[in-house]
Write a sequence for this structure.
């Protein structure tokens, strides 16, 4: 293949010994040299490509906690609070009142055939403080005959109407944890966490059908490209449970037209239900044998608790600031210890969802026990979300080699609600403790939890730098990081957590030629403008992909 020298107004390399450059030489999809044009030309004949001469290149951003379902969920009626981008660059408008919610649901109801279940996505009652929490009575205003399932933004709760409760036989006597009961002792319509949500079986069918459609994964790749993300992840992989998903990922991601690399971390079984971990470990190791340059399989995802804004995450004393604590641990201590020990000894990296600090403690303790029996100095097990992890926990994590992937987007999307309702004014100052974690020596990255908030690592970095809420509050001045630190978190540190830092995450010789192409320089704009840096597109293994813009 002919070598190409890409020039740019500036190249931000994330490589300490040569942090800035003007040109990068690419051959066979990999970087040969970085520096001046003359230095690159010294390697021999190469075409000079000046198409990015007025743009800025940085390493392709890395999303180490993503969900390909983001490409699927926008096919359902969108009822989230904030506007979100679609794969074609257009915007899906949010709903800001219960009246708007019901209007969207009525329109969707009118478009469905009789007998079909209405499934909508991304609503969150927490934004409507002072109003009665969304319940079956609200949804019954749309239909008393068609089952309705409104999935909450967190993915950990849903609200259904009476028709759904009746159709699925969900009553006050249902023994499954998470069926919320109202003041009258009857189901309110809110289903908390996966086991309870799974009771709404008629909603599972359209969701599973959508998740098995390759177009959803294709659309996820489009969203990544539009955001400057060249490597992303799937942190709710079902390949251990549903083997056909591996074939779909294989065919879509390895297609030359797909603009990103994907690393998949699979759940070993249904969350909240003990699984055969030895069998799951064997299946995960078999999946890893299918790895390619673009698709990595075999990692393990455990789900330790629920959602902070849903009051289902497990938090230590003094618990939640307001509201009723519905914290639901998805593992007993013994079961989590067994799961971690089994996967750890099988040489499988573990990502554990732990929004609450009590859940983080449970996972840290399990890793500690596993390491006492089986030494592995480079496991890179990671606490995912890590929203209220305490300073003492970060010090312990550093000792044990546990990384943290912090859900910084919560500062913007739910920061005011955490201040006023969930955690309270004091503890919210030390949530998303990016600086404390870094200073403790923990590997730190940030994530969008795509599908919960839109894919966009410039936004997660902006949150870590500015820590500002929509109301203008600054939550935790002492936990702010610099722009340079934030950009490292969403490039080389995220690559490290995905065990790919020898291949991606910086622009240096030997790595894949994966770049984010920017219209603006993130090191020159004001820190408050970081999230507004315009993305032109990406380069993956030397192939250029221009972002889609709405017409």
């Amino acid at each position: 293949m002919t070598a190409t020298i890409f020039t740019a107004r500036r190249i931000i390399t994330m490589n300490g010994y040569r942090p800035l450059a003007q040109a990068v030489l690419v051959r066979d999809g990999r970087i040969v040299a970085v520096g001046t044009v003359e230095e690159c030309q010294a390697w021999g004949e190469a075409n000079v490509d000046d198409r990015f001469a007025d743009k800025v290149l940085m390493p392709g951003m890395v999303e180490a906690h993503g969900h390909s379902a983001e490409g699927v969920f926008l096919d359902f009626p969108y009822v989230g609070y904030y506007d979100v981008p679609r794969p074609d660059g257009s915007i899906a408008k949010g709903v800001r009142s219960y009246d708007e919610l019901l209007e969207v649901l009525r329109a969707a109801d009118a478009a469905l055939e009789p007998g079909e279940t209405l499934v909508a996505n991304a609503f969150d009652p927490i934004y409507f403080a002072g109003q009665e929490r969304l319940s079956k009575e609200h949804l019954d205003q749309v239909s008393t005959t068609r089952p309705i399932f409104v999935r909450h933004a967190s993915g950990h709760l849903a609200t259904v109407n009476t028709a759904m409760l009746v159709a699925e036989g969900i009553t006050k006597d249902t023994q499954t944890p998470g069926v919320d009961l109202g003041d009258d002792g009857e189901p309110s319509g809110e289903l908390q966490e996966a086991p309870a949500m799974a009771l709404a079986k008629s909603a599972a069918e359209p969701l599973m059908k959508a998740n098995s459609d390759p177009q959803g994964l294709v659309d996820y790749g489009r969203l990544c490209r539009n955001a400057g993300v060249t490597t992303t992840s799937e942190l709710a992989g079902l390949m251990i449970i549903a083997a056909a998903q591996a074939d779909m990922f294989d065919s879509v991601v390895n297609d030359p037209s797909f603009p990103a690399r994907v690393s998949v971390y699979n759940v070993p079984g249904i969350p909240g239900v003990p699984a055969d971990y030895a069998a799951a470990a064997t299946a995960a190791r078999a999946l890893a044998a299918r790895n390619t340059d673009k698709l990595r399989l075999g990692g393990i995802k455990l789900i330790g608790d629920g959602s902070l804004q849903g009051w289902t995450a497990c938090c230590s004393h003094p618990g939640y600031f307001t509201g009723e604590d519905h914290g639901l641990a998805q593992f007993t201590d013994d079961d989590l210890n067994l799961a971690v020990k089994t996967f750890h000894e099988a040489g499988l990296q573990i990502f554990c969802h732990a929004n609450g600090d009590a859940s983080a403690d449970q996972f840290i303790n399990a890793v500690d026990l596993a390491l006492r029996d089986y030494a592995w100095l480079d496991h890179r097990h990671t606490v995912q979300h890590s929203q209220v992890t305490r300073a003492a926990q970060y010090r312990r994590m550093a000792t044990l080699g546990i990384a943290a992937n912090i859900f910084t987007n919560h500062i913007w999307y739910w920061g005011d609600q955490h201040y006023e309702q969930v955690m309270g004014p004091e503890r919210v100052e030390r949530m998303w403790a990016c600086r404390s974690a870094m200073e403790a020596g923990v590997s730190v990255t940030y994530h969008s939890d795509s599908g919960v908030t839109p894919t966009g690592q410039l936004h997660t970095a902006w949150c870590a730098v500015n820590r500002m809420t929509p109301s203008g509050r600054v939550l935790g001045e002492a936990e702010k990081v610099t722009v340079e630190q934030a950009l490292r978190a969403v490039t080389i540190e995220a690559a490290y957590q995905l065990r790919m830092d020898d291949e991606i995450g910086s622009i240096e010789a030997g790595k894949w030629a994966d770049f984010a192409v920017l219209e603006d320089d993130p090191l020159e704009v004001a820190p408050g403008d970081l999230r507004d840096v315009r993305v032109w597109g990406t380069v993956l293994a030397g192939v250029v992909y221009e972002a889609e813009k709405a017409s």
Summary: Residues 357-373 form the longest helix (17 residues). The mean pLDDT is 96. The chain has 19 helices and 23 strands. The CA atoms of residues 117 and 202 lie 6 Å apart.
